[in-house]
Amino acid sequence: VQLVESGGGLVQPGGSLRLSCAASENIFSVYSMGWYRQASGKQRELVATITRVGTTIYEDSVKGRFVISRDDAKNTIYLQMNSLKPEDTAVYYCNTSPYGYGIDWGQGTQVTVSS
Asked: pLDDT tens digits for 57-88?
Protein backbone atom coordinates (compact mmCIF):
# COMPACT_ATOMS: atom_id res chain seq x y z
CA VAL A 1 0.00 0.00 0.00
CA GLN A 2 1.24 3.48 -0.85
CA LEU A 3 0.02 6.69 0.72
CA VAL A 4 0.35 10.05 -1.03
CA GLU A 5 -0.34 13.24 0.88
CA SER A 6 -1.05 16.58 -0.77
CA GLY A 7 -2.63 19.96 -0.18
CA GLY A 8 -0.12 21.65 2.07
CA GLY A 9 1.24 25.13 1.61
CA LEU A 10 1.87 28.50 3.16
CA VAL A 11 -1.10 30.13 4.85
CA GLN A 12 -1.57 33.09 7.14
CA PRO A 13 -2.69 32.63 10.74
CA GLY A 14 -6.45 32.16 10.83
CA GLY A 15 -6.50 30.66 7.36
CA SER A 16 -7.60 27.24 6.14
CA LEU A 17 -6.19 24.33 4.18
CA ARG A 18 -7.53 20.95 3.16
CA LEU A 19 -5.10 18.07 3.05
CA SER A 20 -5.67 14.87 1.09
CA CYS A 21 -4.21 11.40 1.50
CA ALA A 22 -4.74 8.96 -1.33
CA ALA A 23 -4.21 5.25 -0.71
CA SER A 24 -3.28 2.89 -3.53
CA GLU A 25 -5.65 0.25 -2.13
CA ASN A 26 -8.90 0.21 -0.23
CA ILE A 27 -7.63 -0.13 3.31
CA PHE A 28 -10.22 1.98 5.09
CA SER A 29 -12.49 -1.00 5.69
CA VAL A 30 -9.62 -2.72 7.46
CA TYR A 31 -7.88 0.05 9.40
CA SER A 32 -8.70 3.17 11.26
CA MET A 33 -6.74 6.00 9.68
CA GLY A 34 -5.05 9.00 11.15
CA TRP A 35 -3.37 12.25 10.32
CA TYR A 36 -0.05 12.81 11.99
CA ARG A 37 2.27 15.80 12.03
CA GLN A 38 5.91 16.36 12.77
CA ALA A 39 7.23 19.80 13.53
CA SER A 40 10.91 20.55 13.11
CA GLY A 41 12.87 19.05 15.98
CA LYS A 42 9.85 17.31 17.48
CA GLN A 43 8.41 13.83 17.47
CA ARG A 44 5.64 12.86 15.13
CA GLU A 45 2.24 13.12 16.78
CA LEU A 46 -1.22 11.87 15.96
CA VAL A 47 -3.71 14.71 15.59
CA ALA A 48 -6.85 13.11 14.16
CA THR A 49 -8.30 9.64 13.66
CA ILE A 50 -11.24 8.30 11.71
CA THR A 51 -12.27 4.76 12.61
CA ARG A 52 -13.58 2.10 10.26
CA VAL A 53 -17.13 3.03 11.22
CA GLY A 54 -16.52 6.75 10.83
CA THR A 55 -16.00 7.83 14.42
CA THR A 56 -13.62 10.77 14.65
CA ILE A 57 -11.15 11.53 17.43
CA TYR A 58 -9.00 14.64 17.79
CA GLU A 59 -6.01 15.68 19.79
CA ASP A 60 -6.91 18.51 22.14
CA SER A 61 -4.91 21.22 20.37
CA VAL A 62 -6.82 20.78 17.10
CA LYS A 63 -10.26 19.94 18.47
CA GLY A 64 -12.86 22.31 17.05
CA ARG A 65 -10.53 23.48 14.28
CA PHE A 66 -9.67 20.35 12.27
CA VAL A 67 -12.06 17.89 10.67
CA ILE A 68 -11.04 14.48 9.38
CA SER A 69 -13.17 12.77 6.76
CA ARG A 70 -13.03 9.92 4.31
CA ASP A 71 -14.17 9.12 0.77
CA ASP A 72 -14.16 5.35 0.42
CA ALA A 73 -14.91 5.47 -3.31
CA LYS A 74 -11.73 7.47 -3.86
CA ASN A 75 -9.60 5.67 -1.26
CA THR A 76 -8.85 9.10 0.16
CA ILE A 77 -8.95 10.72 3.56
CA TYR A 78 -8.99 14.44 4.15
CA LEU A 79 -8.04 16.87 6.88
CA GLN A 80 -9.84 20.19 6.79
CA MET A 81 -7.81 22.61 8.86
CA ASN A 82 -9.40 25.89 9.93
CA SER A 83 -8.28 28.74 12.17
CA LEU A 84 -4.69 27.73 11.60
CA LYS A 85 -2.04 28.82 14.08
CA PRO A 86 1.74 29.13 13.72
CA GLU A 87 2.09 26.12 16.02
CA ASP A 88 0.30 24.00 13.42
CA THR A 89 3.36 24.36 11.18
CA ALA A 90 4.65 20.86 10.45
CA VAL A 91 4.91 18.13 7.87
CA TYR A 92 1.61 16.26 7.83
CA TYR A 93 1.34 12.54 7.13
CA CYS A 94 -1.40 9.95 7.06
CA ASN A 95 -1.19 6.33 8.12
CA THR A 96 -3.10 3.78 10.12
CA SER A 97 -4.16 4.73 13.62
CA PRO A 98 -2.50 3.40 15.61
CA TYR A 99 0.60 3.20 13.48
CA GLY A 100 2.28 -0.14 13.07
CA TYR A 101 0.56 -2.31 10.51
CA GLY A 102 3.41 -2.31 8.05
CA ILE A 103 2.33 0.57 5.84
CA ASP A 104 5.23 2.86 5.05
CA TRP A 105 5.03 6.58 5.60
CA GLY A 106 4.44 8.73 2.54
CA GLN A 107 6.45 11.83 1.73
CA GLY A 108 4.13 14.04 3.74
CA THR A 109 2.94 17.52 2.90
CA GLN A 110 4.38 20.68 4.42
CA VAL A 111 2.05 23.11 6.16
CA THR A 112 3.50 26.47 7.11
CA VAL A 113 1.41 28.99 9.03
CA SER A 114 3.05 32.37 9.01
CA SER A 115 2.30 36.00 8.34
From this structure: 999 999 999 999 999 999 999 999 999 999 99
Tell me how far apart the alpha carbons of residues 72 and 65 are, in angstroms, rounded to a whole number: 23
Question: How many CB atoms within 10 Å of residue 109?
Answer: 22
Q: How far apart are CA 18 and CA 9, in angstroms?
A: 10
Q: How confident is the prediction for the chain on average, in pLDDT?
A: 96
Residues 106, 103, 23: CA angle, nearest 5 degrees: 60
Q: Would you list the DSSP string of 60-88?
A: GGGTTTEEEEEEGGGTEEEEEE-S--GGG
Specify the pLDDT at position 29: 84
